[in-house]
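Re: that backbone. Tokens:
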């Protein structure tokens, strides 16, 4: 059946009745039906189906229906009949994040970004935000954050979503046993989990290493290198980066340098500034690393050093933020330049908005993925 875009309205009738305008009934192929099964997110309800005289594509939900399936709001949404006698509204997208229990800023530094997602997303679908603590698994509902008419957050009980958009704030949270259990529980309910987890450095390298075009630009990299491997790379490249695979913000990264006839050097950031240590031989360098990190070095990677361009004497590198579009092709949505400083790291980020390319040909495929 065709995918339609229409408007939801609320009726005060207590019975479980769904009213459809004539053009919507015809487009969905439901003209001969007297009853339907309505689905929103993971919630379903059986209801009587009645026509209503109104031009355009409109659906009216009685109070009995919307209270049964926790309809998030009135307004525009996609309407789909996947099987005979069934009707789906949505999709329902839940933005998963976390933060302090502050009503005005429930997701900390990400609150403004999440508010923007809700504002734009609800022009075409049901979008809400939630934290793990907001889920009621027994009732399969979420005590979610939505935007009120004034732009502030309001709380509503809504169904579990069709799709979870993961925006958890940190690697520590993302890889915790609790979050792994959360992903499993969504999976058992056939709820898609987008943005599965943070990549670590070894994952990114292994993905790119097999690509013929990208592979030739990759610096030489090894996971959990032996001391012999580290020494060999330092002697061949003169400087290397030794860093935790799942690290971020420059924490725990060492720049190791070998200068013939001068010795070995280790530079790292800590205690509010940069530290440079000199060692007379390679073994003394390794003793320092093992003393500071011990068994944690098994999760480190070593990477060939690359000379970076500089601004004001500070090195910078560039980051590309990629998303797949509705045609399943990777597209650049943002380019960032990261400038290193003595006491802090400065981010200059230029957001590039892509034109909305969710054409009618792409939307049915997306719906089939989440239905």
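Recovered sequence:
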């Amino acid at each position: 059946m065709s995918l339609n875009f229409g408007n939801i309205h609320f009726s005060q009738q207590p019975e479980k009745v769904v009213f459809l305008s004539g053009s919507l009934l015809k487009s969905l192929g439901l003209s001969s039906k007297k009853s339907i099964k309505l689905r929103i997110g993971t919630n379903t309800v059986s209801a009587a189906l009645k026509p209503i005289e109104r031009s355009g594509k409109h659906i009216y939900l009685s109070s009995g229906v919307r209270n049964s399936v926790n309809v998030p709001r009135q307004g525009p949404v996609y309407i789909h009949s996947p099987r005979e006698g069934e009707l789906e509204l949505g999709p329902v997208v839940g933005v998963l994040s976390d933060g302090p229990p502050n009503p005005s800023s429930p997701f900390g530094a990400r609150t403004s970004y999440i508010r923007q997602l809700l504002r734009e997303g609800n022009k075409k679908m049901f979008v809400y935000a939630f934290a793990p603590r907001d889920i009621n698994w027994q009732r399969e509902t979420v005590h979610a954050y939505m935007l009120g008419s004034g732009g502030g957050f309001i709380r509503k009980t809504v169904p579990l979503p069709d799709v979870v958009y993961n925006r958890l704030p940190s690697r520590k949270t993302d890889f915790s046993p609790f979050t792994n259990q959360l992903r499993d529980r969504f999976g058992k309910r056939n709820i898609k989990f987008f943005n599965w987890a943070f990549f670590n450095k070894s994952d990114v390298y292994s993905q790119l290493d097999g690509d013929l075009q990208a592979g030739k630009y990759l610096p030489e990299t090894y996971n959990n290198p032996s001391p012999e491997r580290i020494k060999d790379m330092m002697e061949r490249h003169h400087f290397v980066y030794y860093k935790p695979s799942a690290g971020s913000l420059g924490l725990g990264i060492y720049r190791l340098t070998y200068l013939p006839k001068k010795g070995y050097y280790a530079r790292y950031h800590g205690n509010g500034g940069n530290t440079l240590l000199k060692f007379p031989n390679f073994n003394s360098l390794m003793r320092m690393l093992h003393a500071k990190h011990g068994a944690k070095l098994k999760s480190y990677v070593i990477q060939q050093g690359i000379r970076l361009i500089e601004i004001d004497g500070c090195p910078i590198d560039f980051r590309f933020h990629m998303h797949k579009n509705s045609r399943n092709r990777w597209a650049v949505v943002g380019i960032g330049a990261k400038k290193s400083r003595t006491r802090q790291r400065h981010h200059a980020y230029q957001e590039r908005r892509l034109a909305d390319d969710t054409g009618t040909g792409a939307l049915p495929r997306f719906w089939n993925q989440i239905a």
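The chain has four domains: 3-89, 93-194, 202-307, 308-371. The radius of gyration is 27 Å.
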